């Protein structure tokens, strides 16, 4: 008497031997999803997916490190100026810049109010 696992294994071997596709019926799919079999498939899938990560994270040997370009914090290229290390931090505004932003925001708000006022006037006529 052939068991369900024997039939499944025979089907897989035949497809592998002939280089053909294999089609599973729902009961055979349930067998493949059983904890014993699916755990092995999931482990193999995990190894396959994480292999490139493990390969990329290997420490470099002395020859590989020597082949890397030298790192420098000095500016390179045409038209690149030295970055100032003193003064206001990035993102901070001067007093004049804050006033300019405030003025621009006020103008935008006034324009929006005028636009809404015009729309209301047109609707009431």
Alpha-beta content class: mainly alpha
What is the helix/strand order? HHHHH
Query: For the CA atoms, what is the radius of gyration?
Result: 35 Å
Our estimate of the beta-strand percent is under 5%
Describe the 3D structure.
Helix content is 64%, strand content 0%. It has helices spanning 4-18, 26-32, 35-56, 62-67, 95-124. The chain starts with a helix and ends with a helix. The protein has 125 residues and is mostly helical. The radius of gyration is 35 Å and the shape is elongated. The protein has five helices and no strands.
SSE arrangement:
Layout: H1 4-18, H2 26-32, H3 35-56, H4 62-67, H5 95-124
Task: State the main characteristics.
125 residues; mainly alpha; 5 helices
Provide a short characterization of the protein structure.
The protein is mainly α and 125 residues long. Helix content is 64%, strand content 0%.
